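fyi for ur records
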Amino acid sequence: MRVRRARPEDEAAVAALMEQLESTVHSVVAPGLKARFVQMLTLDHHAVWVAEDEGRVVGLVTASLRPTLYHSGPSALIDELVVDANARGQGVGRALIEAVVTWALQRGASEVEVSTGMDNEAAQALYQRCGFRVEAVLLELEVPP
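which gave:
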């Protein structure tokens, strides 16, 4: 298994992984995924990695950087992380998280943040095994388009 930066030709595999994420987070991916994916590949403050095993994409993570007034360096945020159901428990998630942390450190980030559903105990356990601590509560307000 290897982790690499995503490429435009990964779009179909990314879409399939995002479908799996939908069932985990009990939400629907907004229309226009392909356009957002291609755009994210071009932005300096966003990054997308995939994990490949024997030429097949088995995991995805996206991350973004943003400046804050509180920290001396930017904050990195893991936006999405999903591992194919058949590849879970094999270190794919950890490898993807490590790619984000390395990227964030190379860009002077002061922290890496992530949120996950309160009922997603498997994701919470993965993040905690990777050194993340519960420090806040995330509140969301969905706004209409």
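The first strand starts at residue 2 and ends at 5. thats all i got for now
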